[in-house]
Specification:
Elements lengths: L8 H18 L3 H7 L5 H8 L18 H10 L6 H14 L1 H6 L2 H12 L5 E4 L15 E5 L2 E11 L7 E7 L9 E7 L4 E5 L11 E11 L3 E2 L5 H37 L1 E2 L2 E2 L4 H29 L5 H25 L10 H9 L9 H11 L3
Parallel strand pairs: 1-4
Antiparallel strand pairs: 2-3, 3-7, 4-5, 5-8, 6-7, 9-10
The chain binds flavin-adenine dinucleotide (FAD).
Length: 380
Amino acid sequence: MPPSPPFTEEHEELRASARGFIERELAPHAGRWEQEQWFPEELFAKLAAQGLLGLKYPERYGGQGGDYLHEAVLCEEMARIGSGGTAAGLGAHINIATPPIWKFGSEEQKQRYLVPAIRGELIGALGITEPGAGSDVAALATRAERVDGGWIVNGEKTYITNGVRAHFIVTAVKTTREGGHHGISFLIVERGEGVRSSKLQKLGWHASDTATISFEDVFVAEENLLGELNQGFKLIMANFQWERLAMALGAVGAMQLAWERTAEFARERQAFGRALSGHQTIRHRLADLATSVYTCRCVTHDALRRFVAGEDPLQEVTMAKLLTQRACFELMDACLQIHGGAGYMREYWVERAARDARLGPIGGGSDEIMREILGRTLGL
Ligand SMILES: Cc1cc2nc3c(=O)[nH]c(=O)nc-3n(C[C@H](O)[C@H](O)[C@H](O)COP(=O)(O)OP(=O)(O)OC[C@H]3O[C@@H](n4cnc5c(N)ncnc54)[C@H](O)[C@@H]3O)c2cc1C
C-alpha cells in the first residue's frame, strides 16, 4: 500500500525500523516493567542509540535533522511497546520536556540540557500542574523569589511524568505577585538540594513514575530562566498543540493495534459452534470499531498535516485530541468486552490497554477544556 499523506515512503521506512526495534527490544519486557511499576533508565540511552530521542531536532544538537512528521511516526509506534507507562515516560521526555528548551532555550541551555537529553544521558520532565492548579494554569502558586544571582523556588508540583527519575524539570513558576497569566515564568530546575519527589499510585500507566515534586528553598541560577521573564504562559501555549497532537497520534496507534488483536481473537475464539466474528453483533461491533479507528486517523492526520504546513490549526488539533482520547478509551472497553472474562485478566494485554487509555480524556487538557477551546474557536 502506498503511504497515506502526510507520510511518505521515507516515513514508512522509519516506521518499519522503529516498529522492529520496539517489538524486539521493548515489548517483550513491558509486562515486567508494568508489574515492577518502573521501566529502566537505560531505555533512554537505548532509544538515543537508534536516533529516536532526537528525530525532530537539528543535527548540530545530536538530533536526526527531521521534523514533526518523523516524530509523529514514533508517537504512533510507541503504542506497540504495550505499556502506556513506558510510552508516557519516554514520550514526556521527547514531546513535552525537551521542546521548550529547543524553542526557547539559550544556546548555553541547549548545550547543557538538550544535547545530553537527546543522547539519553539526562532525563527531563515538564512541571506545570500543581495540587491547586491543573486545568486552570493561571492559578499556579509555586513562587520564585529574586535573589542575588538567581531565584529561590518554593512550592509543589503534582502528577508529573518522570517526576522521580528526571534530572531536570522544566518548571512553571510565579515570578510576580499578581494573579492570572501574567507573572508566569519557566525555570529549568535541576534535581538537588530542596527538590523532593514522591511517586504516586495510579489506575494505569504503571511503569511510569508520576510524582509529586516539592521545592523547598531551591536555589536556581539566573542562567536557568527559560524564555523571557513573566512570559511563561506563551511558552505553555507554544507546545500545547504538539503535545495534543502527540496524544492523538498515540491513540491512533493504540487503537489500530487493539483492533487488529481483537479481530484476531474474535476469528479464533469459538462460541456456540462458530467463531465470535461469525456472530453478527460481534462482527458489527468490530466494523464500528474499525470505522472509529479510521475516523480518528483521518482527523488526526489532517490536523498533523496542517500543523506541519505551518498553519495555526488550533481548532483541528483540539478536535483531534477530544475525539481520539475518548474514542480510544471506548474502543479499549469494547475490545475488553469482546475478550470476555479473559479481558479482565492481568495476563491479557487488553486489561492494561483499557486502564492506560483512561488517562487520555484527562491529561494534556481534559475533554471539558478541549470543548471550552472549541467554544471559543467556534465563536460561541
Ligand atoms: C498520569 C498523569 C500524568 C500527568 N503528567 C503531567 C506532566 O508530566 N506534567 C504536568 O504538568 N501535568 C501532568 N499531568 C496533569 C494533567 O495535565 C492534569 O491532571 C489535567 O490538566 C487536569 O488537571 P487537574 O487534574 O488539576 O483537574 P482539574 O483542573 O481540577 O479538573 C477537574 C475536572 O473538572 C473539569 N473542569 C476544570 N475546569 C473546567 C471548566 N472550566 N469547565 C468545565 N469543566 C472543567 C476537568 O475537565 C476535570 O474533569 C498528568 C496527569 C496524570 C493523571
